Amino acid sequence: METKFSIIKDVKEDEEKIREAAEFIKNGGTVVFPTETVYGLGADALNATAVEKIFKAKGRPQDNPLIIHVSSKDIEPYVMEIPEVANKLINKFWPGPLTIILKKKDIIPNVTSADLNSIGIRMPDNEIARKLIELSNTTIAAPSANISGRPSPTDFQRCVEDLDGKVDCILGGMQSDVGVESTIVDCTVIPPIVLRPGGITLEMLKEIESSIEIDRAIMEKPKEGLKPKAPGMKYKHYAPNAKVTIISGERKKTIEKIKEMVHYNIEKGKKVCILTVEENVMEYTEGDCIVMGSMFNLATIAKSLFEALRKCDDLKADLILAEGYKEEGLGIAIMNRLNKAAGFDIIDV
Ligand code: TXA
Ligand code: MG
């Protein structure tokens, strides 16, 4: 299939290009588009045949439900009921990186929800995304725009790398600002539960509804036979080609341990990449350092995390050694993604 590329600089000036992309959606096609979290691979969520194309393009398991994206807060056409807590979250955090799980109406085909009776919904903050949804006159189902299992793409080029020839259109915008996928809150249960940590932190959610808890199981290595509540939060995910190991603990000790491991592996002829921060980079004299941001600003790290993992692939790394982060605030989302990329291989020093 030939893929059409369109770069959007300004939503108003480039509206015609977004309209062309919307035509693909209306005709049951697939369009990659930017969002503030990561790029999405979209199709008309109400058209089962169109949604099947998403699964095919990504090589995504059929049992993994999709999130639907809306351009307004009016979600009544898609869900059975909107509990008070969901309303509060929507009013506070939409548009933005928060997905809410609610009981779905029959208008959502089973392929979109992977046969669940619930659906994840979010209103993205990115203007290109919202314009595309609005002009498509529907709700757009969109997983991250990567080949299943790979790190999610946060810029146009990475989408092209994974999906050129597999989708009808790729819309390019800015690099995704948040860099990790949306926080998912299941509002079909009381108290509501966080199924995936993301850009909206647990602390921010608790300010609105103190009873919200995080599903602790998502931070631990999945136990045999235990089914995760969000089917997509399964074992291997966000994985670069190289083996990833996280080294976590007090700063000085972490750096010493990484240096030792880098040296040992380079001696053995391995290509080693280190995922580090501005403050630590001078400490490493061997291996390839990839600086993700500042340890005093976790948002900078979240923003460049997936891109850093993909860079390690570009460098043909055999081994990636990543510094660990405290599991609080955005650190929960960062460690969740790192843990998955590492298959929970973590060394505490
Ligand atoms: O930030 C995001 O949410 C991005 C952008 C494109 O919007 N999308 C995204 O979609 O991350 P995806 O498909 O890569 O991840 C969706 C996650 C999966 O873990 C899936 O299992 C979970 O959401 N999910 C979707 N619907 C669900 C439901 N009804 N119940 C439980 N988990 C659900
Ligand atoms: Mg994904």
The Rg value, from CA coordinates, equals 20 Å
How would you characterize the largest beta sheet?
A: 11 strands, mixed
CATH superfamily of the largest domain: DHBP synthase
Strands, count: 16
Proportion of strand residues: 15-25%
**Outline:** globular
Using the 3D structure, state the CATH architecture of the largest domain. Alpha-Beta Complex
Q: Bin the helical content.
A: 25-40%
CATH top level class name of the largest domain: Alpha Beta
Whole-number total of structural domains: 2
Strands across the major sheet, in which order?
1-8-2-3-7-4-6-5-9-10-11
| Intertermini distance | 50 Å
Average pLDDT taken over every residue: 95
CATH topology of the largest domain: DHBP synthase
List the secondary-structure elements in sequence, H or E: EHEEHEHEHEHEHEEEHEEHEEHEHE
Structural class: alpha/beta
Poorly predicted parts:
none
Number of helices: 10
Ligand inventory: threonylcarbamoyladenylate, magnesium ion
